[in-house]
Design a protein that fits this description.
Elements (H helix, E strand, L loop, with lengths): L3 E2 L2 E2 L6 H12 L2 H10 L7 H15 L1 H22 L5 H14 L10
Antiparallel strand pairs: 1-2
Length: 113
């Protein structure tokens, strides 16, 4: 993919120093600002939409949301380990678990059942 398409530069593909330079130039030029506005399809969102978007970001990307996702991962992991431990292989599991723990190389995917 080219950085220039239809005589337009893909701003996101420029390195940061060049982005900063262009932003500084646009700040100083009313003509450049107007040109960019004419090329963009950015609309002013109604306040209700902005509030709805902010709520969605908070619900899906906050520390609380990440904590809940992490708890779910741990619960799934523990559920899988519980299912793998049956009466027939508990002794094998516990021996391997203790051996791996004493070696310091235990991890969620390293336990042999």
């Amino acid at each position: 993919d080219s950085i220039v398409n239809d005589n337009l530069v893909d701003f996101g593909r420029l390195d940061e120093p060049l982005q900063e330079e262009l932003i500084s130039a646009v700040i100083e030029s009313d003509q450049a600002k107007e040109s960019i506005r004419d090329q963009s399809s950015i609309e002013c969102l109604p306040p209700a939409q902005i509030e709805e978007n902010a709520k969605a970001v908070q619900e899906n990307f906050s520390m609380h949301a990440y904590g809940n996702k992490l708890i779910g991962i741990y619960q799934d992991l523990m559920s899988g380990i519980r299912e793998a431990i049956t009466e027939n292989n508990f002794e094998n599991f516990s021996t391997n678990f203790l051996d791996q723990m004493s070696k310091g190389d235990i991890g969620p995917h390293s336990i042999e059942v």
